[in-house]
Structure formats: structure tokens, C-alpha cells
Amino acid sequence: MTSSVKVDHLSVSYHGEMALDNITFEAPTQELIGIIGPNGAGKSTLIKAIMGMVPKNQGDIKVFDQSVSKMRQKIAYVPQRSMIDFDFPVLVEDVVVMGRYPHLKWWQRPSKKDRDKALECLEQVGMEDFRRRQIGELSGGQQQRVFIARALAQESDLLFLDEPFAGIDLSSEQIIINLLRKIRNQGKTLFVVHHDLSKVEEYFDSLMLLNQRLVGFGAQEDVFKPQLISEAYNGNIATLHSEDGDGQMVVVK
Amino acid sequence: MENLNYFIDAVMTYPFLQNALIAGVLVGIVCGVVGCFIILRGMALMGEAISHAVLPGVVIAYMLGASFFVGAVITGVLTALGIGYISQNSRIKDDSAIGILLTGTFAVGVVLVTTIGSTSINVWHILFGNVLAVSRTDLWMTLGITVGVLILIFVFYKQLLLSTFDPTMAKAIGLPTRLIHYMLMFILSLVTVASLNTVGIILVVAMLITPGATAYLMTDRLPMMLTLSAVFGVISAVVGVYYSYIYDVATGASIVIVATLLFTLAFLFSPKQGVFVRWFRRMTTSKA
């Protein structure tokens, strides 16, 4: 098994408008992979397409060399926080138990074993003390950790995280990135949609630059280059050089 | 107290009042449970549309001599499909599509009623219920729908919970989210038919939304919300029938008023969410 996700000439359109144009790539396993690009670049669409949730115009997608429909159990998804109704009458532990659903038959209820697994995953993200809280009573970073625990409870090999750092404070961001590294070191592959260029070099092993088409994909240090970033962001970036002339930093205008 | 004794005597004596109470209790339970999912999915307006769309179905069924049941389900589900089709295939948003079909189907129903003449079918009873005329057959039908719907929700509880809370994950793990949506629409049509006699088409949405909303203010867990909602539905029905009998007022409306009062109490005094309780807590903490 050499690739986690293999995408071949994928195109997707929404209401007649091209969202993803002829994307081809092969992603490694056991890495933290960042998906970067401007708003409307199709980052969320790409992960939804890989998970088989949006119809594709053309192209072929393989997850661990299998079709997605056979691999659903192995793929976990951490939603964008803005997509969740945090007033929902559900406790933290109930949310994590949902990660066990893909392992249950349609008529089965979560068993004691499933609940224990959920609790163990809550401990892994350091949220076990909050298990009886309603999900909306937590801070943004804590909510994100609960959803990561849910993905862990699913025991998947491939994780998709949609903007896990959006709207949370810096110390939570640190906790979460450390968690993601730990998960990678357990042998899993993580795709992280990210729209902030800072910290990219620190966070990711591989990087994908997307703007409807694939601008660059590969090891982070090969892809995080001003000219490629500029291409992905349609030239809307500025490059800052450090005083000694060696370092440089890219910011979005 | 004297009124209560009088009421209990009447219940013992008159089968029509027994039927009314049983029908009310069943409708309170089934509407309360289904309503929780309607609220959490943000589909209150959809509930309103489906319940109105049942009118032409009922009238056509009456004209053909077929069962109310079949007619109501057909027009209810067709309307749900129509709303989905319009919002997916045009720039019209969901709420507008609902507004168009809600009034459109209802108008067709009204026209049909007027063509067949008001002597053969009592519009008032369909629109506002006539709980004191619940027959044995009606009762069996309401019981059948209640039991059937509760079984469906019990069996598919896990799928309903996930697709309501996180539709994206539900889709990602391969749940048929669209099928679940239309299953709920089908259930809504059934529940409307079951409630025809008790509260009628116009007010059924109150039985769906109000007890559920009241329960929503009282608890942080869905199983508890479902239970409380059913309890509030039953209380509304029993107390509503009582007042309607004692003061000789319309039963459906009386039931809905009780439900609304319960909601008002929860809105003001619920331990966690109550407006008054939160105000009181703010006052005491700012003093301390």
C-alpha cells in the first residue's frame, strides 16, 4: 500500500460552474497533508468528492487502492464547526459514540464496548472530564477536540478535517496540531483543509495548493514556494524578506 | 373541583368523550415525538406545508370513496418532493418554495371542497378538528399510525440522530440522507391524518412544534427531549379536552392553548434556558 488517496483526472461542477478542474494526484500514507488555497478554490469540494459526497463529472478516485464505497468505514470526517448546530441536545460522549456508527449494522445500538471505546478516545484528546456536558457548553477548541475524538472512535486510517483551526485561539490550535501529529504517528493519514498561510511550514508534511486546478502537490518544502503560492492565490500575495536576506515569508494580501 | 368531578363523571358515562381523550393522548404522543426531529432539523415551516397539503388529498379521497389515509399521504409526499425539486432546480430558496406549495395545495383543497358542496363534507371539521366525533374506526387508525411511527423512529433512531446532528458525516459514512428526509415527510403526512379529528389541519403544526420546543428548553439530551415532548403533548391534550368540555369551546384550539401556555412557562422558568431564571441569576451574581 503506497498511496492513501489516488485521484485521476477528477472534475466536479456545481450548478454548471467548474469547481474542480482535472485534478490528478497520488497522496502518501502516514502524513499530515495540508490543502491550501483561496476562498472558493474547491478545497471542501475536493474532500467531499473524495468521500463520494458530490457527483463528479469525470475522473477516478481510489482510497487505499479501493473504491470509496468499499472504504467508508475507514474514512473519518471532522466537519467545519460552522456546519454544526451547537444547541443540539446532545452530550459530548454521545457525539463521540457516533464515531462507532459505521461499525454497527443498521438495526444495532451502540454496545458497552462502543461506549468504552468512545471514552478511551475522549481520554486521548484530554476531554474525558467534559463527557457529560452538552456540546455547546465547550469552547471552540474543545469542540474541535471532541470531533477529533469521534474520528478516532471510528478507527479509520484516513481522516479529513475541514478547517479545524478556524475560529479557535492559539493555545487550542497548539493542542490540536499536537494531537494531529500524534494521530499521524499512529500510522494514519490526515488531510487538513486550511486557509491561513502562516504555520503551514510548521504544520504539514505534504502540501496541496489548490485553485480549482491543482497548482502544486508534494513535500511541503517543495511546494511552499512564493511563485507557486502566488499562482494559487492569483497573484494576491506579498513576499517579505528577512533582513539577512535568507528567510522569506509569504502573506496573502 | 366540582368541574373536575363533573368531567370525570362525563368521561365514565359517554364513550364519545373517552374516544376523544384517547385520540388526544395518542396524537399528543406521536406529534410530540415526531416534532422533536422537525424542530432540530429546522423544518417547522415544512411541517406546516405538509399538513396543509393533506387537505386536497383528503377531499379527493372522499370524492373517490377511498381512504383519507392514502389520499393524504400521496399529496403530502408529493408536496415534499415538489418543494425539494423547486429549490434544487431553480434559484428559489426552500422557504419560498414551501410558501408557494403550502398555499397552492391548500387552495386546491378549498376549491375541491366547495365543488362537492359543504353539506357532504364539513370543512370546519377538517380544518379545526372535531374531537367529539371520533369514531372507533378513527381511533384504530390513530392508534395504528402512532404505533407504526413510534416503531419507525425507534428502529431508525441512530440514523435520525446522526443525519439531524451532522448531515455531512451521515453522508460520508453512506447513510441515505435523502431517503431519511422523505421518510420524515411521509411520517409527517401520516401524523397529520392521525391528528385530523383532534386538532385539524390548521393547528396540527402546533402539536408538532410547541411541545417539542417546550421540551427543548428543559433538557440537553435527545432521548429526554423526546420523552418530555410526548408528556407535554399528552398534558395539552387531556387538559385541552377538559376545558373544551367544561366551557364548551373548540377542542383543537383549547388543546393548542394549553400547549402554548406550557411553552410560555418553560420559556420563562426553565432551569437552564428560562428568560426569567437567567435574569434572576444575573441580578444575584451582579449583587454578590
Characterization of this structure:
The complex is a heterodimer of chains A (253) and B (288). Chain A is α/β, with parallel strands linked by helices and 253 residues long. Helices cover 30% and strands 28% of the residues of chain A. Chain A has one domain (5-224): P-loop containing nucleotide triphosphate hydrolases (Rossmann fold), CATH 3.40.50.300. Chain A has helices spanning 43-50, 68-71, 92-97, 112-124, 140-153, 170-185, 200-203, 220-223, 226-232, and strands spanning 5-14, 17-27, 32-36, 58-63, 75-78, 158-162, 189-194, 206-211, 213-219, 237-241, 248-252. In chain A, strands 5-6-7-3-8-9 form a 6-stranded mixed beta sheet, with helices on both faces. Chain A has a 3-stranded antiparallel beta sheet with strand order 2-1-4, with helices on one face. A two-stranded antiparallel ribbon of chain A has the order 10-11. The model of chain A has no long low-confidence stretch (mean pLDDT 91). Chain B has 288 residues and is mainly α. Chain B has a single domain (2-287), classed as ABC transporter involved in vitamin B12 uptake, BtuC (Orthogonal Bundle). Helix content of chain B is 83%, strand content 0%. Chain B contains 14 helices and no strands. Chain B has helices at residues 2-13, 15-40, 44-64, 68-89, 94-116, 123-128, 136-155, 157-165, 167-172, 177-195, 200-216, 222-247, 251-269, 275-287. The longest helix of chain B is centred in the first third of the chain and has 26 residues, at 15-40. The radius of gyration of chain B is 20 Å and the shape is globular. Chain B starts with a helix and ends with a helix. The model of chain B has no long low-confidence stretch (mean pLDDT 91). Chain A binds chain B through residues 48, 51, 53, 69, 72-73, 75, 77, 79, 83-85, 88-91, 94-95, 98, 101-102, 104, 106-110, 134, and chain B through 40, 155, 158-159, 161-162, 164-166, 168-169, 171-174, 216, 219-222, 224-225.
